[in-house]
Amino acid sequence: MGNFARIIAAAIDAKSYLSPAGDIRRHLNTTNACVACHRGLEESDAVAKVNMPQMADCLVCHTQIDPPFSCEQCHARGPHLKPASHTRDYIDTHSSGKLKLDKPSCVVCHGREFRCLGCH
């Protein structure tokens, strides 16, 4: 598939990466193309969820975000697409301020252009 490391690194540098970058940059500076998406495998004894590609990695190139329609292009349709916080009473709980959500965590699914007032 090629080395996506430089593409992901460019998105991080341009501040268009849709999640907090953390130590991702360290993994992207290697010559192993696999670690661009499968970070930490070289230091790991077993594969874990943390070693799998993150949504923000995919969204560097696949920029069309229109949930739930764009989600279903890659993911099977179903309730597992929603985060655990999105329960039946999510709108009420969210509106009450009890969830203490931060907007950066919302952009991975809803895109950088979403506005809270788009739903409310």
The CA-CA distance between the termini, in Å, is 41 Å
**Rg measurement, Å:** 16 Å
Low-confidence stretches: none
Order of helices and strands: HHHHH
Largest beta sheet, briefly?
A: none
Discrete helix count: 5
What can you see in these coordinates?
It contains five helices and no strands. It starts with a helix and ends in a 10-residue tail after the last helix. It has two domains: 5-58, no CATH class; 71-118, no CATH class. The chain is 28% helix and 0% strand. The longest helix has 9 residues, at 5-13. The protein has helices spanning 5-13, 24-28, 55-58, 90-96, 103-110. The chain has 120 residues and is an all-alpha fold.
Question: Topology, please?
Answer:
Layout: H1 5-13, H2 24-28, H3 55-58, H4 90-96, H5 103-110
Summary of the model, kept short:
The chain has five helices and no strands.
Write out key terms for the chains shown.
mainly alpha, 28% helix, 2 domains, 5 helices, globular, 120 residues
